[in-house]
Task: structure prediction
Amino acid sequence: MAVLSEVMEDDELDEEPGEVIESAPPQKVGEERQLGSNSSLKKKLLKNGHGWETPDFNDQVTVHYVGTSPNGTKFDSTRDSDQPLAFTLGQGKVYAGLDHGIITMKKGEVALFTLPAESGGVPHDSNSVVQFEVELISWIKVVDVCKDGGIIKKIMEKGKGNERPGDQDEVLVKYQVALVDGTVVAETPEAGVEFHVKDGHLFPRFPKVVMTMTRGEKAELVVQSQYAFGEKGREAGSGLHSIPPNSVLHVNIELVSFKPVINVTGDSMVLKKIVKEGEGAFTAGEGANVTVSYTAMLEDGTVFEKGGIGETQPVKFITDEEQVIAGLDRAVSTMKKGERAIISIHPDYAFGNVEVRRDLAIVPPGSNVVYDIEMMDFIKEKAPWELNSNEKIEVAGRKKEEGNLLFKGGKYHQAGKKYEKAADFVSEDGSFGDDEHKLAKALRVTCWLNGAACSLKLNDFPGAIKLCSQVLDVELYNVKALYRRAQAFIETGDYLLADVDIKKVLEVDPHNREVMIIKRKLKQLQADSDKKDAKLYENMFAPKTKDSSMATK
Result:
């Protein structure tokens, strides 16, 4: 009897690390194991396979097998005809239970499976077993895209990597669409067709299919009519072939490539399409000295500015310093060295609703702008842990002064960020000596207080309360912290808490003019609130008159 073990090569492949059965170590050639604690299926590894992937149920596998009965008689074999068997796992196409063994196999692997004998022409008794020696030649990954059988995708050629396009991304695909009888009803040009996933293409669920694919992947689709053109079909016209109602489509598709589109601001007002991937893993981030080249355009292609293109000098600036428009600043912070991108910016993050004269053209009010930009180089701002104690204090002091200038200029949001960063550089991490600790603490408290002032200007009253509370955790009777927290409590309607803070200030500084002003304001607000409450309770508990009772019947 010619069995697969007789055609195996003498030199076995190296064992693949990571094959795990029930958390056990990798199975060795010649070793037999039970598959599953409650299973009567056993597997003996005869030859290692390649790689680490294994098929799943619903995948289409191609195998050679030899089946032997309890008395050792061969009852079935694909080897005799040299015609391997192709079938879909999990659909009852092979001997009961054998599917569960095949899903543990790798490509090229040979294994001997022992399982209980069943009826069907195989001689057996209640204790009998049968054996199948199986070689997994290959398999085609099958994906039920919509989880209801409406779109079945067979992966004919795997793509590269694991990255898949997202809703915002721009993809390049090739495809051919045919009816069941083979009539081709749609086909892309040789170079393929490009579109944004979110914009849709071909038929409604086509983008959903594309989002399951990796770069370079080729697949065959079977699309049921409800996910194609449904009961209406598609009429011919404008170079399109007609598609009859209720048509099932067969689609050959290749995802040639895609350009990731990043929603930089989270509101789709600054979108970055990556044209060329950058180097390494690090992006510029905030506070980096960047050098970029770009062409800036209106949506109609009118160029209004260039930097680092032709004879123009590259543009250098520090991110998060408001040295360029906000959308460009935010997008550049996300870029790697060598990365090239197309950045589309809404007016809210560009020049707003004012007309702006630039080097090469005027930007009209309310214009969307587009930057074709390349990150030539950047020097990241050093993190606190990269500095010694003196350097931390020096950087914190400089950032605090920068925050002061921004505050005086009415740029409260940017000033607040400066104070926050400054405080981070002198955080209480135990790295400061005694004298340095006093300086660091003083800087930290000043930055928190200044940050609270920014929050009040921005009507961020919870933020102001948080920062003042941080100060009061280390300086219980800090007058500025109590005063600013009282202001915030008044604005949030927490009058009792505001009153507590005002009384504490007046214990320390009984003649503080500013505190006396908000004390009077608080007293008036409390009186108004008491009147409203009294009126409310009066209405709630007032006896109903006869007329009012009748009116509500």
About this structure: The CA atoms of residues 426 and 440 lie 5 Å apart. DSSP finds eleven helices and 22 strands in the chain.
